[in-house]
Task: structure prediction
Amino acid sequence: MIIYKFGGVSVKDAAAIKNISNIIGEAKGPLVVVISAIGQTTNLIEGIIDAHYSGKANVNALFEELKEKHLTLTLDLFDEFPQDLLDKLQSFFTEIETRLSKPFSESFNFEYDQLIAFGELLSTTIVSAYLNHIGQKNKWVDIRKYLDADDKYRDANIIWDSSETKVKQKFKAENNSLYITQGFIASDFKGNTCSLGREGSDYTAAILAYLLNADKMIIWKDVLGVLNADPDYFNNTTKLDLIPYQEAIELSYYGASVIHPKTIKPLQAKQIPLWVKSFIKPEQEGTLITKGDLPQPLLPNFIVKKKQVLISIKPLNFSFIGENDLFFVFSLINKYGVKLNFTQNTAVSFVFCVNHSFRFINDLIDDLKLKYDVEREDGLELITIRHYTPATITEITVGHRILIEQKNKNTAIFLSQGSVQVPVDDDCCLQEKRQ
Ligand code: ASP
Ligand code: MG
Result:
């Protein structure tokens, strides 16, 4: 069995879907295709959820945009009006409408998950119908019936044992079987939808690869593979040919956005090779993530996280930060579901970074203020260099206000005010390596 994962960009319009149908058509043997919501749909649904939650007037306009987007795509893909498909899409729209006709319950995260899943349900329904229409016979699978998770909405944990039995029964590796299913979603023990965290479709693909003992998994992207820096911020980037599992875990841990952080572990556990390849140039090799010691080529890797908020706390009574303080802070971090991007503690302070978009920053700060002197600084950038060299550190730091720096054998992290983007100079890095 082979697992493919296509993200939102790869299905963003009719041309993109036709392109991936060629890639799927070239695959040999049984295949499971995991697909995300089209284009920016998840953001759009988040907008709808937010508008409904806070009683804004634009809920309907946003909902119309969601419908329009999927109906236009459908009409672009098919020459004739596909009534069957339109009926299916319509029934999803009706479900959404029903949810939006009532106020949200107490649990925002629960309500969020019940709505956010429609992005993937809609996209996979359209792609599956299109593939069937052009003769690529496939089965559409509602993955929520097969992947069990707990009820930690928006960040649910997979229940491996029961999922394994169901997934193995459903996805049979018969000759040329083709399954189309959703990334990012599962259901809890009560049958309610839950999601695995933003950008979680990679993780779904890895879960299925693990449960089905897949021969390989391929994530199809709009870049040639995993690059040593984000091309949005750096001028010169180099594709990495091979990344050992452990290194890939480190890179995603520090925020390399190319792969979802939870994706690698299930693959590593069964030594399933993961390829990251370009859906624009599928004939090119891409990046292979597999067992090994060092990435090839071995270059400094740059990971930039923008819009960071630094929160610093100090005990009000000038005492030291002790285990009790850390326990208290981490229980709040757990309570609010904070994703920590960086932490550091000294004798008298504890500091951490969170994304600017984190919803409960103010509530968290209010709680911390009960026991601590709390400072907040916005608009920061977190830059991590894996396999740093003295020259790359100079490039990143000279002329910038660096608030915090943390270094260990392979990794250097800088928290900087404003933007420190610099071109990656490959020659300089290579020279460093030759020394
Ligand atoms: N559609 C979801 C998101 O945008 C999941 C994914 O794309 O991986 O977060
Ligand atoms: Mg995505």
User: Anything to note?
Assistant: The CA atoms of residues 223 and 303 lie 16 Å apart. The chain has two domains: 2-221, 301-416. The domain at 2-221 is CATH 3.40.1160.10 (Carbamate kinase).
